[in-house]
Input
Amino acid sequence: MLYRSGPSGRIHRAGGGVLFVALLFLSLQNSELVTVRFYHWFSWQAPLIFLLLIAFAAGVAAGLLASLVRSARLRRQLGRLRKEHRRALASATQTRADSR
Output
């Protein structure tokens, strides 16, 4: 749900506003250039806040990838369990029909 109404929505928007202001102040305080070096092969200069945001985005992407892998595994397991459940129900129904 992207938009919440009522008191919960106002708190949510206020929290988003506070987070935005905090990140704005963080970016204004960390605007100096830093150099990232990868041994002697690669050197790159960028503002510190930009590198922090890149690291944050990489962490979010890694977390999403890990959750997607787990979700896919759980979906496969759920499919197997549903199939096994249907077979068990069919077997139980067949056993009852044969015993009559």
